[in-house]
Amino acid sequence: MAQFERILITGAAGRLGTELRQGLKHLANHIRISDRVAMEDVQPHEEAIVCELGDYEAVMELTRDVDAIVHFGGAPLEVDFETMLDSNIRGSYHIYEGARKNGVKRVIYASSVHAIGYHGMEDHIDADSPVRPDSLYGVSKNFVESLSRLYWDKFGIESLCLRIFSSFPEPADRRMLWSWLSFSDCVQYVERALTCPRLGHTIGHGISDNRLKVVDDSKAGHIGFHPQDNTEAFRAAMETKTDVPDPNAPGVKFIGGWFCELGHPDDEAK
Predict the structure, then answer these.
(1) What is the mean pLDDT of the chain?
(2) Domains of the chain as residue ranges with CATH
(3) pLDDT at 206
(4) What is the pLDDT of residues 88-97, one digit of tens each?
(5) pLDDT of res. 243
(6) How far apart are the first and last CA of the chain?
(7) Three-class SS of residue 256?
(8) 93, 96, 137, 189: which one is catalytic?
(9) Cβ(138)–Cβ(256) under 8 Å?
(10) Is 137 annotated in the active site?
(11) d(Cα 92, Cα 104) in Å, to the nearest integer?
């Protein structure tokens, strides 16, 4: 028997949204999937809605009659500030307002390593370490983490802010040997957050069970996430590559990787 009548997934056309559509379908009788573009292969149990997150009225309707929200929508990379403001900041505010007004009590939010990207590799941070965004994208994630804290303290809406590090089919570079989150581990983390008895306001760090432990995720232990995958099968091939990175480069020194080497996106646009 499904635990939910209806779950909303935003960003459902994206890389992780596509995985979540499949991986969470057993939890609900209906999955409402949404993105700013039309989606293909809509299944009988899915309700597909095209929606711009910056459109307040549209998001109020999008969040109506849902039991939980998996919010993975928004700009996925560093972009100009106006786009970031509308997609990530204003759009996420609309999601939380929709949750408040429509009585939704649990939100799973796709935060990012880039909210804390300027911490060093040797810092061994946890959920209580100060935020150190490496980009405007990271700042937008900090905003929503704070927003979700307010909506828990003031309105009782539970949230997991899942700081996703590197979630791809397989590791693409040396950094991902420690930062990789497999698709199946990502789905498991979200499922555990949806179904655990009490979520409260939790900061989680989305990394698989890789050899190098850069971040302590124990303060999210009440969720019950136990990663099943790791990068050992990819290690030998990755470590034999000749392009050994400079250990003093910002993309190597800091956990945010190459985002720490980007300039201001509005300068780049010009």
Answers:
(1) 95
(2) 4-269 (3.40.50.720)
(3) 98
(4) 999 999 999 9
(5) 72
(6) 54
(7) coil
(8) 137
(9) yes
(10) yes
(11) 14
